């Protein structure tokens, strides 16, 4: 996830963008002031929400990610960010990093119990507990 200063810097690039490279002198201009204001408002609202980050490993097989992501839908967990990378532990596994909003308390416990059935390992960082919890599961 990008640091907020970098996101702010990206939103303030030169607004003169050449959308038609083949047509000399024709430029499209976009006003990013409204977009920047909306982004700042979203980031401020985002700061008020409690976040939980989950890193989990899945075996590389057809449908494993789809099954894991279905859990997020089933448990009504809102993902604000997701990324993947090959696991450093095993070439046949992938690690997924997911930032979630408002995943706390009993909802978090139920979700983690469900995710345990699909993941090889889970690392959790929750603002509620103020720390990191790492679970190793061998399925």
Describe the fold and architecture.
- With 139 residues, this protein is α+β, with helices and mostly antiparallel strands.
- It has a domain at 51-138: Alpha-Beta Plaits, CATH 3.30.70.
- The protein is 34% helix and 31% strand.
- It is built from four helices and seven strands, in the order H-E-E-H-E-H-E-E-H-E-E.
- It has helices at residues 4-11, 33-48, 64-74, 105-116; strands at 16-17, 28-29, 51-59, 78-86, 93-101, 121-126, 131-136.
- The strands form two sheets. The protein has a five-stranded antiparallel sheet, with helices on one face. The protein has a two-stranded antiparallel sheet with strand order 1-2.
- A hairpin with a 6-residue loop joins strand 4 (78-86) and strand 5 (93-101).
- The protein is globular and about 35 Å long.
Question: N-to-C SSE series?
Answer: HEEHEHEEHEE
Largest sheet: 5 strands, antiparallel
Cα Rg: 20 Å
CATH superfamily of the domain at 51-138: ACT domain
Q: Quickly give the structural class.
A: alpha+beta
Number of helices: 4
**Poorly predicted parts:** 1-36
User: Would you identify the CATH architecture of the domain at 51-138?
Assistant: 2-Layer Sandwich
Shape: globular
How many beta-strand runs? 7
- CATH fold-level topology of the domain at 51-138: Alpha-Beta Plaits
Helical content (DSSP H or I, runs of 4+): 25-40%
**Span between termini:** 29 Å
Domain ACT: 53-129
Pfam families: ACT
GO molecular function: iron ion binding; phenylalanine 4-monooxygenase activity
Organism: Pocillopora damicornis (Cauliflower coral)
């Amino acid at each position: 996830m990008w640091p907020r200063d970098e996101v702010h810097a990206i939103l303030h690039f030169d607004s003169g963008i050449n959308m038609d490279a083949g047509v000399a002198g024709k430029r499209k201009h976009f006003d990013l002031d409204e977009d920047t204001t909306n982004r700042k408002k979203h980031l401020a609202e985002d700061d008020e929400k409690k976040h939980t980050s989950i890193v989990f490993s899945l075996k590389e097989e057809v449908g494993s990610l789809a099954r894991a992501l279905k859990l997020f839908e089933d448990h009504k967990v809102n993902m604000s960010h997701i990324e993947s990378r090959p696991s450093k532990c095993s070439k046949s596994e992938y690690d997924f990093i997911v930032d979630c909003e408002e995943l706390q308390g009993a909802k978090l416990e139920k979700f983690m119990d469900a995710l345990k059935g699909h993941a090889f390992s889970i690392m959790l960082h929750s603002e509620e507990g103020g720390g990191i919890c790492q679970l190793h599961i061998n399925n």
